[in-house]
Amino acid sequence: MTMAWGLEARVPFLDHELVEFVARMPQALKLHSDGKGILKELAADILPHEVVNRPKGYFPMPALKYVRGGFLNWMQDVLLSDTARQRGLYNERYVTKFLERPTAHFTKIKGSKLWQLALTESWLQINNI
């Protein structure tokens, strides 16, 4: 979810010392090989060529592709909770539509609209907002 919007959330790359080090590097080094030149050079001695040079991909979450069972129950509990309803943030008609057909509603980049609603509402509830 983060990478689709240009946000870096992979823990190893969030280390402040690494970020500060990379910030001081010349731009040409950072842009080499689509911005992954340094990582590829470091990994070349450790990982197989097929791994270092594989095409960009994503890691699908089966729970989001086949929304059912406990995962769907969790989304229903979050989105139909009194807290969510009182918040009034979501159009209940759309929430019901998404819950009735949980694998049918996607964003332009193929993300689950139901997942985004449930995750947002869950975050709001966890943080008492």
Low-confidence stretches: none
CA-based shape: elongated
Question: What average pLDDT do the residues reach?
Answer: 85
| Oligomer classification | single chain
Topology:
Elements lengths: L15 H9 L2 H9 L1 H8 L4 H4 L9 H4 L3 H11 L2 H6 L4 H9 L12 H14 L3
Helix pairs in contact: 6-9
Short synopsis of the structure:
This protein is elongated. It contains nine helices and no strands. Helix content is 57%, strand content 0%.
Describe the protein:
- There is one protein chain.
- This protein is mainly alpha-helical and 129 residues long.
- It folds into two domains: 3-52, no CATH class; 62-126, no CATH class.
- Helices cover 57% and strands 0% of the residues.
- It has nine helices and no strands.
- The model has no long low-confidence stretch (mean pLDDT 85).
What distinguishing features does this structure have?
129 residues; mainly alpha; 9 helices
